[in-house]
Amino acid sequence: MAATAATTTAVAVIRDWRGWPTVTRALWRRSLRFRTLTITLLLTSTAILITCVTMALVIQNDLFESRKNEALEDAARSVNQAQTTLDATALGDDPAALRELWDSVQEDLGRNSTAEGLAGFRVDGGAAAVSLNGFTAGLSANSISPALRNRVVKFDDWQSWQSASLDVDGRTVPGVIVGQQLQVPEAGPFEVYFAYDLADADNTLTFVQRTLWIAGIGLIAIVAAISFVVLRTVSTPIVEAAETSARLASGDLAVRIDVHGEDEIATLGRSFNAMADSIESQIKELGELSLVQQRFVSDVSHELRTPLTTIRLAADMLNDQRGEFDPTTARTTELLHTQVQRFETLLSDLLEISRYDAGSVQLELEATSLAHLAEDIIEQMQPLADGRGSELRLVAPGGYSPVDMDPRRVRRVLRNLIGNAIEHGEGRPIIVTVDSNQHSVAAGVRDFGLGMDPADAERVFDRFWRADPSRQRTIGGTGLGLSIALGDATLHGGTLGVWSELGVGTNFVLTLPRRGDASDGPSPIPLEPQESLGEIGDATQPIQLADLPAELFDRGSLE
Hints:
With 559 residues, the protein is of the alpha+beta class. It has four domains: 1-29; 31-255, PAS domain (Beta-Lactamase), CATH 3.30.450; 265-356, Helix Hairpins (Orthogonal Bundle), CATH 1.10.287.130; 364-553, Heat Shock Protein 90, CATH 3.30.565. It has helices at 2-30, 32-88, 95-112, 146-154, 199-249, 264-320, 327-358, 370-388, 407-424, 454-458, 481-491, 533-536; strands at residues 117-122, 135-137, 160-168, 171-184, 188-197, 366-368, 392-395, 403-405, 430-436, 440-447, 495-501, 505-513. Helix 8 (370-388) runs parallel beside helix 9. The longest helix is centred in the first third of the chain and has 57 residues, at 32-88.
């Protein structure tokens, strides 16, 4: 159990760690403060890093050069003093005196220099009357490279040096070895080497570098703190303005920015508040004007109903007796009856639109089969389609099980869509498709008539709009049918979409959710149809729902 818990914790940590790039990218895109602070810290850190590295290298080089020059001067002074002593002493041909002098010179070399180690070797091949031994004092011959010895032998009047690692008190420290020739009378030239410990310079360099890095990190922290404070001072009003504008866009027209001071940010805040005041006043004026218009339409519609009822009764009575009139009067009576009916329909649509604008429309839901509803509408519209030479075909692979809807409003939507298809279908077949899936039910009305271009299709739901103003409405529509149909679909939480192409036809798809206020998945009927008129052929024969088995209508059987 403990191992399992530890594994779970480790996986959670890994997942959290893997999520950091996503969080960072989101902050980079959405936060101006985070983006600016990050860029500032990156540039500052880069500048401080370059400065610290450059200073460390310069200090390191200066310390080494200084200690090296001190070592060279110290070695040259010691060798010169020893050479002076050797040249000033007259020994004659006494080898013992020369050896005694050589021992004294060795002591003087160690006493007159600050070197940690000394070594001397007779130059091979030199002519010597007296044989003298070399010496070592704290400096092993193995520490001296052959290249340094070759340079000392080759250039008898030059100083040569090399960097080396020295063994001092059992520890390895950095150092420098300086070599030079010393001319011993009667014994020939000797190679003399001085070893100088540079540990103090290395310690100084380490201290300086540590100080530089601590100072650099501290400086970055100070810059970060200063940048955060400055950015907070500058960005807080911007964030407040963004939040205020978002609240203003969501409909809270009374929200304003708190303005302090007289700087540019304060000027921006005052300008924003002035703009918000102007927008609020204009929206209120438009709202009041819209209410006046809605009230006017509603009042006029209601007031016109009483005289219209009287006129309709009179027109019906005259229309019933038109057979007794002369042809001109009979035709006039028939036109009067038709236009009074159209006027009554227009008043009803205006009242419905005013209810939508006022937000007072309520659904009367009941379980209804969309397929049965479509069959009823097709039967009602069949005489009109026959008169226009169009064939109505129903294709219903789904949509039989009842779904909660307002049947009166859905019936009105289908009647409007089929009526438009009959009017603009150019006498070609009209396909009414009903289908469903687990999320929604849908009905599509496809005609193969005139069609519209995409710009016209975007405006097809506008009130009183027609794609071709020169065309007269032959069926008697009011110009509000599609707008009301879209409102009915939206009221159900569904959608009403349109696809159209000039010379190809138009397809309307009504989609209603099975449950809830909105459909979660795709519509069971695609908005853009895949078949052309030639491909339809006889594949979509009318379906008589009454001939289907009763068990197919059980809830969910064909869904």
